Structure formats: C-alpha cells, structure tokens
Amino acid sequence: MKKDQDQRKFKSDTRNLIDVTLLGICITFFGLVATIRPELLQNKIFTIQLVLTIPLFMCGLLSRIKEASYVDSQRWANLVFVSTVIGYGFFTNIIGLALSFITPIGIALTFFVTSIGLNWVRAGVVISYDKTQTKRRLIREIAQVAIIVFLGILPAIRFY
After folding, report:
1. 31-64: pLDDT as tens digits
2. How far is CA 63 from each of CA 67, 80, 127, rounded to the nearest angstrom?
3. Cβ proximity of 57 and 19 under 8 Å
C-alpha cells in the first residue's frame, strides 16, 4: 500500500512539474505574442485557445494536488483528465496555428500530423504495458485528435 501511494505521489509530482512548465510557456508565449505580434491576437480561434490554456493547466494542477490527497479521488482524477486533455490539445493548436501564421502551411501541417502521430504511438506504448488503460487512452486520443483537427488544422488551412 505504501509503495502504491509513493508511486502515485511521484507520478503526480512529475505531471505537475510538466504542467507548470507548460503553463509558464503559455504565459510567456502570450506575453511575447501580445508584445511582438499583437495582430495575431485578432484571430479569435487562436486567441481563445491561448487564453483558455492557462486556466485549463491551472485547473489540472490544482485538481491533481487534490487527487493525490484524497483516498477516493475519482472525481478529481476526472477533472484532471478533462482539463489536461483540452489544455494539451489547445497547447498543440496554439503552436500549430502560430506556425501557420508565420511559415508555409506545410510546416504547420507537419507539426500537427507529427503531434497526433506521436500521441498515438505513446498511447500504444502505454496500452502495451497496461491493457486496462485502453478505453481511457482511446477516449483521450480521440478527443485530442478532434480538438486538433477542428480547432487547429481546419483554422490553419483557413477552412473557417
């Protein structure tokens, strides 16, 4: 039991460190865009995702802390899951959309396709170690692909 708790705390701390880093990147990126290329903020889809990524990562961070401190923590785990899936999808999109604004579209599409592909590879590795994660990983990856396609790729190619 102690080993499971220690392992859960380690995973939580590691994920929090990653999310804090991504949160810092988002805040810095927002500041840079607002200062250097404020015209990019005229794109509503880009701006909404950039702005919402910050509270999504904050929600994930704070919820993960609560998740680690509760014995029955499934509700906190679900909130972490939803906020981080959306946050990571938006994070991918703001990078891809920024690339689509300043580079040829092929570069942005390469970024999007590579991100999606590597997420699926990572999910496959997780599932290969733990088959009980199949449903959760499939939900996560399908949600991420939907977020990236509809709020990243389609706006990048100026579909809407």
Report:
1. 999 999 999 999 999 999 999 999 999 999 999 8
2. 6, 6, 24
3. yes
Q: How far apart are alpha carbons 72 and 89 in whole angstroms?
A: 28
Q: Whole-angstrom Cα distance, residue 125 to residue 119?
A: 10
Neighbouring C-beta atoms of residue 82, cutoff 10 Å: 16
Q: 106 pLDDT band (50/70/90 cuts)?
A: very high
Are the CB atoms for 55 and 84 separated by under 8 Å? no
pLDDT value of position 1: 57
What tokens does 81 get?
């899951």
* Residue-range domain boundaries for the chain: 2-156
Q: Are 94 and 151 in contact (CB under 8 A)?
A: no
